[in-house]
Amino acid sequence: MHTSFRLSVYLLLVVQLFIGCSSDPLPEPDGSQPETPAATPDAYQDKIRTQPYPKADNELYLNPAPLIVPQTMKTGERLQFSLSRTEDFSSSETLVTEPQEWCMYNPHRRLDTGTWFWRFRSTNINGNMPGEWSQAYRFEVKNDTPEFVTPTFKTFLENAPRLHPRIYCFLDDRIEEARNRVASHPEYKELQNRATLALNVDYTTMPDLYSRAEELRQHTTYLYQAYHLTQEKKHVEKLRQLLEALIVAPPADKQLFASNFTASNIAWCLVAAYDLLYDDLSASDRTSAEELMMRVARYYYKVNCGFQENHLFDNHFWQQNMRILFQVALSLYDKPAYSSEVLPMLEYYYELWTARAPASGFNRDGMWHNGTGYFSANILTLAYMPALFSYITRQNFLLHPWYRNAGRSMVYTCPPGSKTNGFGDNSEKGTEPNRLIAAFADYLSCETGDSYAAWYAGECRDLLRRDYELRLYRMCTDQNYNTAFPADAAKMVWYKDAGEVAMHSHPEDTEKDLALSFRSSTFGSGSHTTASQNAFNLLYKGVDVYRSTGYYQNFSDAHNLMSYRHTRAHNTLLVNGIGQPYSTEGYGNVMRAMTGQHISYCLGDASHAYRGISNDPMWIGYFEQAGITQTPENGFGTTPLTKYRRHILMLHPSTVLVYDELEASEAVRWEWLLHSPTEFGIDAVKKTLSTNNSAKGFVAVTQLFGGHVFALSQTNRFAVPPATTGADYPNQWHLTARVDGSFATRFLAVIQVGDTKESVSAIHRDGDTFSVGDWTIEAVLDASKSSKLTVTHRTEPAVFSYGTDNPTLNGTSYPRQYTGSSLLYDEVNGTWQVTEMTDRTPVSTRAISR
Question: Facing residues of 503 across strands?
Answer without folding.
Answer: 492, 516
